[in-house]
Amino acid sequence: MNGQSGPNAHFASSPEPDNSITHHGFKITTRKLPILKAEPIERMTSQLGITPPEMIFGDNVASLEHVATGWTINFNAFDALDKVDKTGKSMLQVAHSKEWQSTREKKHEGITEVVKPFDWSYSTDYKGTEQSPSIHLEPSDTPIPLELLKRPDPIIFFDEIMLYEDEMADNGITALTCKLRVMPARLLLLCRFFMRLDGVMVRIRDTRVFVEFGTGEVIREYTAREDKYEAVRQKLAMKGRDVPAQLRDPNNLVDLLPIVDKSLERASRTVAIRSPANYRPFTTSPSFSATQAIPQTAPQTYLPSAAARPPKQNPKQDPKQPNPPNKETKDLPVSAKLAAEIRKRAPSVTEPYIAYAVCEKLVKTCATQADYTIPQRYEKNGVIPKTADGEDLGVGKGWWYESLGLHPTFNNWAQITFLHMYALTVRLRMFPASAAPTWHQHLLDHFFYAAEDRMVRDHNIYSRGVRNKYLKDL
Question: pLDDT value at position 239?
Answer without folding.
Answer: 82
